[in-house]
Every structure is written in structure tokens, then in C-alpha cells.
Write a structure and sequence with these properties.
Blueprint (H helix, E strand, L loop, with lengths): L10 E9 L2 E4 L7 E2 L5 E3 L3 E4 L4 E6 L4 E4 L4 E10 L4 E16 L10 E5 L3 E5 L3 E8 L2 E8 L1 E6 L7 E5 L2 E6 L8 E2 L2 H11 L8 H11 L11 H11 L27 H5 L22
Parallel strand pairs: 9-10
Antiparallel strand pairs: 1-4, 1-6, 2-3, 2-5, 5-8, 6-7, 7-9, 8-9, 9-12, 10-11, 11-14, 12-13, 13-16, 14-15, 16-17
Helix pairs in contact: 1-2
Protein name: FecR protein domain-containing protein
InterPro entries: FecR
Pfam family, one: FecR
Length: about 290
């Protein structure tokens, strides 16, 4: 675990990549501590990435977090029993987006890896997913591999979903998770890039290939010839112009076509407007004086 590092007492992970400005707020320090590669992390630490900054944290069980710009995370709990292969991790995301690449624990039934946000909880076991806090009222969860259980952080809000690889959902404040939708591979690639520090290896191409295989392919547009269009128009509309089976004036309003210069009535009409009719009792012959 934590290959290549000798951990210190209480250390639950280490920074393996830092791009830009990243710091840590911890209970034993009065001021933020700038993060650097090889620096240890402890429970109750609050990790912050600044604008255009990213970082990667590797936990003692080899799970990894890739954190994007303007991100804030509190490590509420992270316990790993190497002998029993049991993990208990609870991370609280406050803002921004991050990617969790969760290592498989030996005893998945008794292990947990949960990410909390202002509106949602995403629970995973041996999977790869992205948590994107769109606002304080909406969280997006995108699964790249494996299965993630998603529910509202408010326990009184009933309902949860099992999000499969290649799917995404939104969790709004006070609402159960929305029905899963497929994630476009281009959008998944965008989220991966926004959370990936420089010079960091991760199984991105494999994940994206899996999503591309799962995502539904839209059907090609159907070409309709002119005869078919006329036939369908005759089925839907009668000679009166109203839909068959519907009286004129019901359903959709009947709109009369506007008079245009292409209308025969307009082309054949005189451009000189007709004279108004003479009032009753008047002489239409003005030769005697009008």
C-alpha cells in the first residue's frame, strides 16, 4: 500500500502530483500548509486547489483522488485494515469536481468509500467515478467504471439509484437522484481532463472505450420521398384542411395562410384600390357639379 512511500503514524495518504497552487488546512497548523509531492495527509485535513490548479492524492489502500481547480475536500474518515482488507472512507466535497479511482478492497461487503456533497452521497466499491458540484443545490455524478449507489444527503429524502458505467445523474437539494442518462464520451473526456494533474498516468483510454461501447448510437435520419409526404398529408388532413377526426376549431388552431406576392389572387388583382361606394341619394355623375 502506498507503493514507494514509508507512511508515518496517522498518515492516511500522500500527494503524488501537484500542479499549480494547492494547500492543506489541518487542525495542528495555524496557517494553510502548501502541498508538495510526497507530503502526507491526515484525517480531518481540508485540501484546497486554487484557480488553474490540480492535485492527486493516493490513499494507504492505493485508492486515488484527482482534484480539479477550485476544489475543496475534507477527509472526514479514512481507515484501512491491511490485514483484514477492510476500508472505511468518508470524504466531504465542498465545491468543484474530483475523480475517485477506488481500489478494490478484499472485503468489499464490509468496506465503504463514500463521497458527500452539499446535496448527494455517492457510495462505491472498487470503481471509477467523478463527482461534480455544479452549485450548492445540484451535484452531478458520472460513473466511468463499476457501480455507484447515489442518494440524497438528506436521509429523509427517500430513493436511491445504482449508477452503472457510462451513466450520469443529477441530485438536487431535497430531491431523489434523477433517472440515469448515458454520458457522451466527449463529455466524460472533458471531466477527466479537468481533474487530471500534469504528468499523471490513469486508465483514461480504457474507461472512455468502455463508455463509447455502452453509449447508444442515435439512429440515422430517415429519408422521406415526395410521394410518401403527400400520402401522409392526405391521411392526416382532409380537403378542408382540418385534421381527420377533429372538427375545425378544436385541437390545433387553423391558421389561414398569409397573402403573399406569390398568391394568384394578388398577382391578378389590380394595383389600384377600388373607389368607395357613393352615399345613398347622391348623384354619381359629377358632371353637373359635385
Amino acid at each position: 500500500m502506498l507503493t514507494g512511500f514509508a507512511t508515518h503514524a496517522g498518515e492516511i495518504g500522500r500527494f503524488t502530483a501537484v500542479s499549480g497552487s494547492v494547500d492543506t488546512l489541518r487542525q495542528v497548523a495555524a496557517a494553510p500548509v502548501p502541498a508538495y509531492v510526497g507530503m502526507g495527509s491526515f484525517m480531518r485535513d481540508i485540501i484546497r486547489t486554487k484557480h488553474r490548479s490540480r492535485t492527486q492524492l493516493r490513499f494507504i489502500d492505493d485508492s486515488m483522488l484527482n482534484m480539479g481547480p477550485d476544489y475543496m475536500l475534507e477527509i472526514k474518515e479514512y481507515i484501512f485494515d491491511a490485514d483484514r482488507k477492510v476500508r472505511s472512507g468518508v470524504l466531504h466535497s465542498l465545491r468543484g469536481k474530483m475523480r475517485a479511482i477506488v481500489a478494490k478492497a478484499g472485503d468489499n461487503a464490509n468496506s465503504r468509500f463514500e463521497v458527500e456533497t452539499p446535496t448527494a452521497i455517492a457510495a462505491a466499491r472498487g470503481t471509477d467515478f467523478i463527482v461534480n458540484i455544479l452549485s450548492s443545490l445540484v451535484t452531478e455524478v458520472v460513473v466511468l467504471e463499476g457501480v455507484v449507489e447515489v442518494r440524497n444527503i438528506d436521509r429523509t429524502v427517500h430513493g436511491h439509484i445504482l449508477l452503472q458505467a457510462g451513466q450520469r445523474t443529477l441530485v438536487a437539494w431535497g430531491k431523489p437522484p434523477a433517472a440515469p442518462t448515458f454520458t457522451p464520451p466527449a463529455y466524460a473526456q472533458l471531466l477527466i481532463n479537468e481533474t487530471k494533474p500534469e504528468n499523471v498516468h490513469s486508465p483514461d483510454q480504457h474507461r472512455l472505450a468502455s463508455i463509447a461501447e455502452i453509449a447508444p448510437v442515435p439512429p440515422p435520419p430517415q429519408m422521406v420521398d415526395l410521394h410518401t409526404m403527400r400520402f401522409m398529408s392526405g391521411l392526416m388532413f382532409g380537403r378542408s384542411g382540418s385534421m381527420r377526426g377533429m372538427p375545425v376549431g378544436s385541437g390545433l388552431p387553423v391558421v389561414q395562410p398569409a397573402v403573399t406576392q406569390t398568391a394568384p389572387a394578388l398577382l391578378n388583382a389590380s394595383r389600384t384600390p377600388p373607389a368607395p361606394p357613393a352615399p345613398p341619394g347622391s348623384n354619381s355623375d359629377c358632371s353637373s357639379g359635385c
